[in-house]
Amino acid sequence: MTGATTGKVRKIATEEAFSIPEVAEALKDVVRGPSLSLDKLLVGGIYDSKPTDEGYAKMSFLDGLLDVEDRRLKEMDRFGVDMHILSLTAPGVQMFDADTATDLAALANDRLAEICQRHPTRFAGLASFAPHSPKRAAKEMERVIVDLKLNGFILNSHTYDEYLDDQKFWPALEAAEALGACIYIHPRAASYGLKGPLQDYGMDSAMWGYGVEVGTHAVKMMAAGVFDRFPKLTICIGHMGEAIPFWLWRINFMNSRAQVIGRAPKTELSIAEYFQRNFVITTSGVEDPLALRYSIDKLGADRVMWAIDYPYQPTEPAVQFIDAAPLSDQERALVCHQNAERIFRIAPAA
Amino acid sequence: MTGATTGKVRKIATEEAFSIPEVAEALKDVVRGPSLSLDKLLVGGIYDSKPTDEGYAKMSFLDGLLDVEDRRLKEMDRFGVDMHILSLTAPGVQMFDADTATDLAALANDRLAEICQRHPTRFAGLASFAPHSPKRAAKEMERVIVDLKLNGFILNSHTYDEYLDDQKFWPALEAAEALGACIYIHPRAASYGLKGPLQDYGMDSAMWGYGVEVGTHAVKMMAAGVFDRFPKLTICIGHMGEAIPFWLWRINFMNSRAQVIGRAPKTELSIAEYFQRNFVITTSGVEDPLALRYSIDKLGADRVMWAIDYPYQPTEPAVQFIDAAPLSDQERALVCHQNAERIFRIAPAA
């Protein structure tokens, strides 16, 4: 129950995946059913493969997702990781019908809150919700923050091929803003209209398609003016900001021009200003010191958080990466724990 | 006919657009005809708008595309730009039927060669070809390099929604490799299967969709193993490498894993190795000193070339950007002209 004793800076890992058996079982049904979703490729491999299947042993992420308090805690101890901020792994509840999604989100949130209560210094949690039932989602979002004391929300990008620029989802955004709780937009495979050239060569998921999907989602929200309606909403995106920090000059320049000539909606702020005000990013899956340095120089050290992406990425190199990264002590403290404490309302270490 | 006299380092701008009246007229017909192409949004604005249309005056790129030897040369002189490497602007000939495309590519190449011959120190040229007629394309590619002495090739990403991983296009790749001539993959709007969420808010073109399209194209080629078949082929991509330099750690890690578990084809080299060996990038449309510094630190100063993206981007800030960028003299010489001289076989300044 105590924090890992490393003598080093506190380490809060911010994009750490878990699941519960009920969701895993329901995803197996989804995989076996009819669907054109590009998620089926990877989700099938995780939830519906057998020990005899090729590749199973090398991609047995399911055990790592379902275990939280046993091997995971030991691995955290071994490598000096103080806390995982847990979130129900992609695609979350967003491939289920709205009723099932609502029920399973609540169940997963209850379990998550229990884990966090048992290990308050080791685990925090981002709650799930069913975006396709927006009003029930808003109620659940209030329950998990006020009653369950969870730390924010997880959303796995599009929901049945629709994005948060669509006003049907805005009750959820309104709730998040009112609760002062951040929404982490995590990848899932690209939506139907975006998946065409991403179906081959393993490009559907983390190699490429995930970044296309979430980057598109974030730009869509900014260009649509979502943050004029919800100026205090904070969105977190992983994978070093899904490359948006690197694209920012061009997005900003071209959006400004598009507004002038009537090809993009007028917005109160520029894209660069929205990204700086309404977004924070994490390092999940991008253990590149140059990319980290770039992002901090671009956005400021108070906008970047460390993450592992457990169990999809191994813990040890993620720890070595952040330990060796060319950061000042102040920057390292912000990236490793202070930003996470502020954004996800986690108590500072005693 | 002489180079601009600046007293500064020679400046060769590497992604500079032009057109000819015949192609502009044919594109107007394409815009007015039936097509689901996402390119119609922007192409219509450029080729089929009237002076009375809203936004026309602010987006009158057509004049800048059709003029090469008058105002363009004056602007180059004014801001100390020694040379434009010209290429037929997107979507090039790739929205025409194969016969029309083949004919118009040859016509545009002839005109381009004449311009370069009249101003050998001010203009070089990348030749067009019709990828959807691959064998005729290969013949034209030989003609423009051997007979017309042009400097490389331009391709505007997908052709009727297909990419260069498709072996039907490989005669063109074989020709480019045999000729030792680089192919510049320039953006056009995303292919049919990729365009779904890119249709609103001006996201179809340079603000976002162009990068999604060309980045996807480049990753597709590497992941498919195209460069095992064409190890000496050089591909140039603009817009600071379409963010692939920033994504490289993750693409490489995930592709390696995908190969191990059988989700991606086995290739001889890693993605990072292909990108380093077979790709060069330009700065077009990304006038961000941090992104330039990152790219040079990641890829080496011999893989990055300066560009303006005339007439779509203004000349003066592009020049100011590269003059002020935090580069050593050696790096600046490489980025401003030496790399372009080597890759596009341009004679060094006398």
Summarize the structure.
The structure is a homodimer of 350-residue chains. Chain A has 15 helices and eight strands.
Question: Can you characterise this structure?
Answer:
The structure is a homodimer of 350-residue chains. Chain A is α/β, with parallel strands linked by helices and 350 residues long. Helices cover 47% and strands 10% of the residues of chain A. Chain A has 15 helices and eight strands. The first copy, chain A, has helices at residues 21-32, 40-47, 61-66, 71-79, 98-118, 134-147, 170-179, 209-224, 226-229, 239-242, 244-260, 271-278, 289-299, 315-324, 329-343, and strands at 12-18, 83-88, 123-127, 152-155, 183-185, 235-237, 279-282, 304-305. The first copy, chain A, has an eight-stranded parallel β-sheet with strand order 1-2-3-4-5-6-7-8. In chain A, helix 5 (98-118) links the parallel strand 2 (83-88) and strand 3 (123-127). In chain A, helix 1 crosses helix 2 (40-47). Chains A and B meet through helix 8, helix 11 and helix 13 of A and helix 8, helix 11 and helix 13 of B.
Taking all residues together, what is the mean pLDDT of chain A?
Answer: 95
Low-confidence stretches of chain A: 1-6
Query: Major beta sheet of chain A, specifics?
Result: 8 strands, parallel
Beta-strand portion of chain A reads 5-15%
Rg of chain A is 19 Å
Structural class determined from secondary elements of chain A: alpha/beta
Q: Shape of chain A from CA axes?
A: globular
Q: Helix-strand pattern of chain A, N to C?
A: EHHHHEHEHEHEHHEHHHEHEHH
Give the strand line-up of the largest sheet of chain A: 1-2-3-4-5-6-7-8
Largest protein interface? Answer: A-B, 65 and 65 residues
Question: How many helix segments of chain A?
Answer: 15
Number of strands of chain A: 8
Quaternary state of this entry equals homodimer
Relative helix content of chain A: 40-55%
Give the N-to-C terminal Cα separation of chain A.
13 Å
